[in-house]
Amino acid sequence: MTTFSNQSLMRNKYYNWIIKNLFSSWVNSLMTVVAIIFIYEVGTFFLNWAFFAADFRTNFQGELITDRSFCSKNIMPGEYGACWAIIYARWDQFMYGFYPIEEVWRVNFVYALLPLAIIGILFDKLPFRKYFIYFTFIYPFLAYFMLYGGPGLSVVGTNKWGGLLVTLFLGVTGIGLAFPLSIILALGRRSKMPIVKSLCVVFIEFIRGVPLITLLFTANVMLPLFLPDGVNPDNLLRALVAVTLFQSAYMAEAIRGGLQAIPRGQIEAAQSLGLNYWQTTRKIILPQALKIAIPPIVNTCIGLFKDTSLVLIIGLFDLLGIGRAALADMTWTKLYYEVYVFISLVFFIFCFGMSRYSLYLEKKLKTDNS
Amino acid sequence: MEQVIQLEKVNKWYDDFHVLKDIDLSVQRGQKIVVCGPSGSGKSTMIRCINRLEAHQKGHIVVHNTELTNDLKNIDMIRKNVGMVFQQFNLFPHLSVIDNISLAPIWVKKMPKKEAEDIAMSYLEKVKIPEQAQKFPGQLSGGQQQRVAIARSLAMNPDIMLFDEPTSALDPEMIKEVLDVMIQLAEEGMTMLVVTHEMGFAKTVADQMIFMDEGKIVEQATPDEFFNNPKSDRTKLFLSQILNH
Ligand SMILES: Nc1ncnc2c1ncn2[C@@H]1O[C@H](COP(=O)(O)OP(=O)(O)OP(=O)(O)O)[C@@H](O)[C@H]1O
Ligand SMILES: [Mg+2]
Question: Which element (helix H / strand E) includes A144?
């Protein structure tokens, strides 16, 4: 008996919610119906294109697709959807660029350890967090050694790197290097020393006032001029410099917001206890300011991660660059939708992850010691 | 008697606003001085000058025979020996109570962590809340927070304590628990400079009363004289307002 009445109560709840939110008036009902039709049409069209009418490795006749002429949609125009064979065919390039195939395990190794390297930063209540953080500091050196090579490993020049490897390398390293730099910039911007302060302000405002593309071009052309003759940094390093500077300016502004939220009384209390500037900054101000600033910092990271795709302009093959190279290949040309949908999906996975993390933090900050 | 604080013709301006005008004050070791006066009269500014949270522009401030100038070494030394308690407590919200208290001993006095925590616990016992050691400031009542703030200052083992309206942000039922701690501290011989409008407290502990108005010390007297026979009309007016309140 009770289960039954509970069920009907539940049904009533849903029914009421639907009436109240979706059909409260004629206009609302009309909009609801139109929206449902729209979602249905677009949704079925996309699912049909991407899955039900799509080729994966073989076409509708069961033949392995080795070039675009085997795609079902090119054999029977109008009847079939996506031809994902291009993604399979170019998978290694998408993931590793032109990295020698027999050395690809090294990249996989670095990919596999990446979550371990960042998990300690992301979750402050993680058990054994201290050890994860140690690993975070070891990881860049380990990753560099594995990817580039050195004693015991053959050298793979960065001109062979590409695809997701370049995207992640620029995104993760750029963010990682920009973080300490941005803390210094944000503190410098609030410094009482006029020269330090104006240097930081000029740097931040200059970088923020210039599009990333311009910085990439500038780094590409100008960096060799600042370095001694014969030192010729490779393209990837030039891009990394530009990306890092760009990100540090935006992150610095996010951190400055956090710094401003710390009441003066905190600093005065620390000073009155005899703590000096650096102790006050490190022990009192930064822990509180960074906590507040994490959600906006993550937002700048999402922006940067997507912006790394601009490096194709200076001749690097990031995920997007590899995609465009695949499309330029006569065997696969014209499969635009497949390539761009795939690339979008990869970017989306990473950015959506960051976005969810930021939401999780905001919720956590609200419930934490308030 | 040993003089521990001396202010001599101290003047301070905020831009062109003259906050402190020719302040003269001398505090002996073990003395308890209570400062009162209307809002905006410069009480906070005066005691904040003593540990250089604010800089004065004219005159001399000497604490423990060290003159306060821009010399950071002197400022650091003086801050180590002068504790301060604020109206808004100013506890560090991201640190537990025990970490709040042991922070300065560990970082400023370079004390081993264990020793600093033992000292922190002993001061928590002194302010009668050892059971709150592991909590965060946000989980405590105002009165408890202010007692932690007092313990935090005491843990640096200062020989002078400055209090800037320590009870005026508290609900009435919590004022007593904080004042009791301060009275105990006074009985132990601490040198104290207290800005407060708690006249009962002043009568109990003060050696000297100071009344400030418009940036000047208008009257300085023993509590007996100050309450029963004030000289200045402004003091009389102020006392009548505050005592009838
Ligand atoms: N940072 C500042 N900049 C400019 N003016 C200030 C500043 N701090 C304080 N003042 C002014 O200086 C005067 C004295 O301030 P102070 O805080 O010392 O007063 P107070 O006697 O402690 O008052 P209250 O009882 O309200 O705490 C006030 O008029 C105040 O507006
Ligand atoms: Mg005040």
Answer: helix A129-148
Determine if residue A63 is left, alpha or beta; phi over 0 gives left, psi from -120 to 50 gives alpha, anything else beta: beta
3-state secondary structure A45-73: HHHHHHHHCCECCECCCCCECCCHHHCHH
Hey, what are B190's tokens? 């601490």
Closest ligand 1 atom to B215 CA: 14
Burial class for B166, CB neighbours closer than 10 Å (0-12, 13-18, 19+): buried
Max distance between CA atoms of chain B, in angstroms, equals: 55
Measured between CA atoms, the residue of chain B closest to residue A283 is: B103
* SS3 track for B129-160: CHHHCCCCHHHCCHHHHHHHHHHHHHCCCCCE
- Chain A positions touching B79 (Cβ under 8 A) are 271-274
CB-based contact, A291 to chain B, within 8 Å: yes
**pLDDT tens, B66-124?**
999 988 889 999 999 999 999 999 999 999 999 999 999 999 999 999 999 999 999 99
Question: Residue B5: phi, psi to the nearest 5?
Answer: -130, 135
Pocket test for ligand 1, best of B12, B17, B20, B54 (most atoms within 8 A of CB): B17
Which residues of chain B are within 8 Å of residue A272 when distances are taken between CB atoms? Answer: 51, 53, 79, 82-84, 153
CB B63 within 8 A of CB B50: yes
Residue among B99, B103, B17 at smallest CA distance from B54: B17
Enumerate residues 6+ apart whose C-beta is below 8 A from A305: A167, A171, A347, A350, A351, A354
Would you call B82 and A279 a contact, using CB atoms and an 8 Å cutoff?
no
Domain A162-369 has CATH 1.10.3720.10: yes
CB B47 within 8 A of CB B193: yes
Distance CA A347, CA A168 (A): 10
Which ipTM did the prediction report? Answer: 0.94
- 């419930």: which residue's tokens? A367
pLDDT digits (tens, 9 = 90+) for B196-241: 999 999 999 999 999 999 999 999 999 999 999 999 999 999 998 8
Kindly list the protein residues whose Cβ atom lies closer than 6 A to any atom of ligand 1.
B 14, 17, 19, 37, 39-45
Mean of pLDDT over chain A:
91
Q: Tell me the backbone φ, ψ of residue B95, rounded to 5 degrees.
A: -115, 145
Report the alpha-carbon distance of residue B193 to residue B206 in Å, rounded: 9
A174-219 pLDDT, tens digit each: 999 999 999 999 999 999 999 999 999 999 999 999 999 999 998 8
Task: State both tokens at B99.
Answer: 């970490």
Chain B residues within 8 Å of chain A (Cβ atoms): 51, 53, 76, 79-80, 82-84, 86, 88, 90-94, 103-104, 107-108, 136-139, 149, 152-153, 156
Residue B80's pLDDT is: 92
| Six-digit token string for A368 | 């934490």
Q: Which residues does A236 contact at the CB level (< 8 Å), separation at least 6?
A: A158, A159, A161, A166, A169, A170, A316
Q: Where are the domains of chain A?
A: 1-52, 162-369
Neighbours of A154 (CB within 10 A): 10
Distances (CA, A) of A86 to A61, A98, A102, A166, A210: 18, 16, 22, 20, 37
Contacts of A212 by beta carbon, 8 Å cutoff, 6+ apart: A242, A243, A246, A307, A310
